Queue: 2 jobs
Job 1
Amino acid sequence: MIVVEDLRKSFGATRAVDGVSFSARDGQITALLGANGAGKTTTLRMLYTLMRPDSGRILVDGIDVQHDPLAVRRVLGVLPDARGLYRRLTARENIEYYGALQGLAPARARARIDELIQMLSMQDIAGRRTEGFSQGERLKTALARALIHEPRNVLLDEPTNGLDVMSTRSLREFLRRLRAEGQCVLFSTHIMQEVAALCDQVVIIARGRVVAEGSPDALRERAGEASLEEAFMKLIGARALGELS
Amino acid sequence: MSRSAAWIVFLKECRESLRDRRILINALLIGPLLGPLMFVIVLRLTVARQIEQAARPLPVAVAGAAEAPNLISALEQQGLQLLAAPADLAGAVRSQQLDLALRIPAGYADAWRAGRPAQVELFYDSSRQGVVAEVQRLEGMLQAYSQRNAALRLMARGLSPTLAAPILVAPRDQATPQGRGALMFAMLPYFLVFTALIGGMWLAIDSTAGERERGSLEPLLINPVPRDRILLGKVLATALFGSASLTLGLLAFMIAGRFLPGDQIGLSFNLGPAVVGATLPLMLPLVLLIAVTEILVTAFAKSAREAQAHLALVQILPAITSVVLSFAPIKAALWMYVVPLLSQQLIILRLLRGEPIAALAVTLSVVFTLAAVLAVFFAARRSYAAERLAISS
């Protein structure tokens, strides 16, 4: 469960995030939908404790991010925009490293890695060095290492960026599975189909502010449009005309 | 949990680096071998030149040689090589056709026979490199001939030759053979520092700027581990490769010492196992200081290339103190043992000379170098805490 209250962050004169509030519930997939530069990544970075908010509050499973960032990191699994791997380590070694840093006992880490390799169908790449991996293989490895400690909350920044259709489909499959297990899944995206195919809850962000929040159906209804894309344009356009190119 | 995080990072950096050919070649091959190789080559060249100069014939253009056949043959016995003289001696020296020329004026033979001081003229250009040494050599030859004849003349008049030498200067050079060798060895501490620098360099670059560049730093920092533990792990891994490089380098120096032409010029080098064994622990705090500095300097570079440029500047610093020490040998004062780098260089030089080392000097060196390690570590920790560190784009 993630609760965000009136979050603000400026870089110089630019207000990247300007009063964002929303919540993402357990057992649901929530999307942060917005154009490039709307403030999605900055919001996520504050959520996963890499940036300090200027003001506002974030609670992850009731833990205040600013009070105890280390405790928050233990209950968060994060796939950031930067998802570089160690090229000279195998996929399994990459995941093991994060397991150790999460404080997992070696035996438990091994069992969990086997489980993740199974879940993500990584059997044929687990023992290979990650140098030369395809985008899909990279994503699987990065995802596995982010989930090594069985986090109850999963944050993903534009997870389908650069993925082919097959990989995108299996990623969606995987996220649904996390939802079925009762996890809180929050991801950022600018792709409409993704939202329509996956989400229970959508938070639309434009210019660092939340312009609408609700289920995809509720948003369509509110905008009086049949397609989500039209609804999105309308909801955003009302506030920030000409922001999208 | 966070106590062992530094260890986890350390192990991972080592494991990854052991698979990296560039890091390995630098730490185990180039670092340890470049120093000794350059050192032996430079030393052999300078030594060879000194030997050569002492034994080499000295070519001198002599005008009026026929006027003084005895003088010429005496000079030739001492190594003078007679060249035909052009008409304008002074002009030939000025235009650099000749290094050195000797003119025996027409009145020489008459003056000699009459027992008056017979004049000879030396033409040279003292602003030209290397000429002064040749002039001194020729003057020495002339002096020797002059003194011998003065003694003969005194004896011919029944006087003791010692009358003409009221003062006798006896040189007593106090430089031990090791001392003279160590002067040439003044650059050795620099090569050791250089070796440690090279050994850890690529690991430092790869684990900081490289990690940023490849986008693996941001996910790494999201793990529930304080950043200074991650930093510590990286520093220790860098230090391990630096000290591996240094150890191999010292062994290489020990072996290289045998190929130095020490006995040819009466120098001896004290670079045995005892000195090497004492140098290594003395250098370890400095290796740590080098490692933490490398991590600090590379942490903010946006790319590996930029980090490399920053580190090139770091490599100049130890060279400066070494050059100063070797060209202007200063008397070691106590405060110098407080300065990291300088203290190690001074102590290693004393070790090489076979001189005793004060326990205080070693203590000061170790304590203050470790204090510097802490200071730089805290500076690095501050920069690692910065928000923008993790953000690669």
Job 2
Amino acid sequence: MRAHHLRDVELVDIIDRGAVTAAVDEHVRGCATCRSRVEDYRTVLEATRDVEVPEPSPLFWEHFSRRVKDRIETGIEERGSTFDEWRTALAGWRRHVVAAALAVAVVGAAVLGIGRWFTMAGPVDQRARVGFESSPPAGGTVASEERAEWELLMLVADGITSDEAVEIGLFGGPGQIDRLLPDLSDDERRRLGELLHDELSSTES
Amino acid sequence: MAWVEGAAVDWTLSVDHLASSRDVGGSPARPLSATRLDALREADDNAVLDAWMAGQTEAFDVIVERYRRRVYLVCYRFAGGHEDASDYAQETLVRAFRGLRRFRRQASLSTWLHRIAVNVCLSRLGAKTIVTESIESEGFVDTRGDSPADGVLRNERAAQLRTAIARLPRRQRSVVILRVYQDLSHEEIAQILGSSVGAVKVNFCHALATLRGVLGPAASSGAKGPS
């Protein structure tokens, strides 16, 4: 018997195909939590499938094809949506501001975090640790400005979903990590490996 | 399909004009005879694309006929209303027309069109208020077999789900629409969204979890047993 419940991917495989490995199948038969989850999700999937869309009439398609032809001829799709594009651009501009703010926050956190890795091996700088965990590093008049900025960034970052983070370019596409890895030292790689291992272990439990 | 496709629009004059002025496909060919056009309609996507590249401008007519409904339905799921869906679907096909010469066929034509449609919908919806309910659809759904109570419950649940799907994060919403309503495989969806299959499945799972929360106890089958 497996020690952990179904992963998301396994759950989707069961719901979609009903065919999974023997170990997963055995686990579902013996685990009320996972069995209930599978059945709940199947119910949700069926209910979602039942949400219908009205079929346009055959006459609509004649009109539709003509409209496509017209738009190709006149390029109206570029002019017709100017207002929408303007609004999209405005929304995009706001996102870029948020992205820039988040990027600063992430870089700052990363620098402080890496600093903390290395200070953990030697005498611990309590001020730096407190600064990392609760507020920006203190330091005269600059500190109050940084604190205000830090608090603003925390506010901005709060509630950002992973989808939004990907959308605004905070996280790159597949392969980005491959480009970053060569820049890491051996210690940093080992530490990254440990962090990933810990993260995966906590996700599975 | 329960309905009959409309007759093909005559693209020949306008598209021939575009073909010569924009260098679409190869050298513009003479209009196809009705027999050859019928043969093109029966041909697979690759043959239709070959015809397009060879300058047979009617080939795009065939592509529009073949995919307009599917594209429209994807757009309807995103937009939640007929007018916007029609607009987005038209834009999708116009963009496809403009990009067809650069289409390398690394993905299928269907996948490529879906990708354009999703991009169009997400970009056009980006600045709009989320559509929470499509009232106009209620009159189209055949509920004659339902009791009045069933009908009310069904409509209420459908409205809840439409709202919830519209509020899902973009990627989750895209996965639900492409998987549940377009019946695309996770592999195809990964190609469309430029993502991994695993990420598609995780997004799908998270979306189902959210929708389960919306449906509440109605979704709980309550299987109990030894853990």
